[in-house]
Write a structure and sequence with these properties.
2 strands, two-stranded antiparallel ribbon, 5 helices
Amino acid sequence: MVLTVKNICLETTDQGFLVNSADWNQEIGKRLAELNNIPLTDAHWEIILFIRHYYQQFKHLPNARVFTKAIAKELGEEKGNSRYLHKLFPDGPLKYACKLAGLPKPPTCL
């Protein structure tokens, strides 16, 4: 599949994840959010940028439990809990944070 952002065509998987995470920028993140009906706020960007940094640092994606714990450690307990994350990404915090961040689909997500 192809995603077009500002006349640039980007290859995506059949589930809408970018094939090449190096192609990502915030404009692409905004377009992916629109396509997934997620109105972005600063709180969303904080989590999106967090997971991009995590992936760059550790070269892998965490499972949902490790993701939540890592957020709690870095951003505080009020943000590192499933209730907060599900308010931002109701259909799956890890899956949609990764998708909007231009990262691969986490192996633990359906």
